[in-house]
Amino acid sequence: MTRWRISSYKGSCLPLKMPLISTLKRNSWELRRSLRENDTIRRTSNSSGTMLFVLQGYSLRNRHISGSSRLYRRRAPRPIIHSGQECEHSLWNGDIQKNCWGCRMNDLLYKLIYRSLLKREARRSIVGRNRALKNAERGKFDRGDVNVVLVNLWRHYDKLSPDIPKEPTVGARHNVRFACMTLAFYTALLEAGIEEDDAKVLINDTLWRLYKKAAFLPRLIARILTSDLKRRLRICVKTFMFFPFSEPGYKFEIVADNSSENAIAVKWTRCPKIDYLRRQGAEELCLACLCNLDYPLLEYWGGRFDRPCVQAVEHAHYCHMRFNIREEGARDDGIGQDETR
Predict the structure, then answer these.
(1) Cα–Cα distance, 209 to 215 (Å, whole number)
(2) How many CA atoms lie within 13 A of 179 on its CB side?
(3) How far apart, in whole angstroms, are the C-alpha atoms of residue 102 and residue 232?
């Protein structure tokens, strides 16, 4: 049951257009004038499933009105409302349903996309591998093991998702949910008795398959537009800087680098994934399972990744990333070869 606290309101600018479900027959003007800060609106539903809103605090100041609370159908009155539980947004005009529905829609859409994608890639990456990577005596993963892990993954995701912060861009919102899914994946593997280091390897291998799908389109565009290796890398990197690593969700600047092998260098001063996992106490998980995917990503694009400074575990204020071309003789090794497992 969700509660919202009224932090402020606009007095007579609160039109109440919903029918009143109680013995209250007074004019809505009196109710508008009776709203006070710290009143509570509790969301509930009746037996028919209709969403109702209970105004608590109002009846305490109006004891002559029968009933301990007042119920309104469909919509709450229109104060500015701040939720301390499910939704972090400050809601203007009491548009509770719209904003909280938006939060749930983000999660529902994300889960709809990634349930099938992750299930497919997790099976390809994990089934048939040792449960303990350095100990064959524990046997190998089968499809049933992976299915149990995935069920527990989404159960943990549902527990973690209410704490996902709101981000200003679609790409940042997607990436924070991706980080939340990674943390849920890690927790599910630990529950299955997998060692921490082995769990990170399995997650890294699984998520790389998803990264590779996202990296294919920039690589294809770059190869169509130019044959110059540096220009190809710049196109790929700037495509990702447009989405999903775009401002203002991410903060970055392109820095000068006079090295002959460098195509582009970027200094990142804000990363929502690192910020989220740091709050969850999982900085090392971010480095092992997410940040380190940049190395195979650059190889897939035909380059070589160099990271002199990283925020995830060094507590630095920025990440310095250098996207370099490969050495002559190793430029196209393995590029374009898709995994067939």
Answers:
(1) 10
(2) 29
(3) 37
- Token pair belonging to 253: 């600047």
Distance between CA atoms of residues 154 and 108, nearest Å: 11
Distance CA 291, CA 312 (A): 8
pLDDT (tens digit, 9 = 90+) per residue, 224-263? 999 999 999 999 999 999 999 999 999 999 999 989 999 9
Q: Is the predicted pLDDT of residue 90 greater than 70, yes or no?
A: no
| Per-residue exposure over 60-73, b if at least 16 CB sit within 10 Å of its own CB, e if not | eeeeebeeeebbbe
Q: What is the mean pLDDT of residues 85-104?
A: 41
Q: Are 341 and 124 in contact (CB under 8 A)?
A: yes
CA–CA separation, 184 vs 98, rounded Å?
27
DSSP letters spanning 40-92: EEEEEE-TT--EEEEEESTGGG-TTSSSSSEEEES-----EEE-SSS---EEG
Mean pLDDT of 45-53: 42
Computed from CA positions of residues 234, 240, 242, 247, in that sequence, does the dihedral angle turn out positive or negative? negative
Domains and CATH numbers, the chain: 2-94 (no CATH), 101-325 (3.90.1520)
Percentage of the chain lying above the pLDDT 90 cut: 55
- Calpha distance 9→55 (Å, rounded): 14
Start-to-end CA distance of the chain, whole Å, equals 46
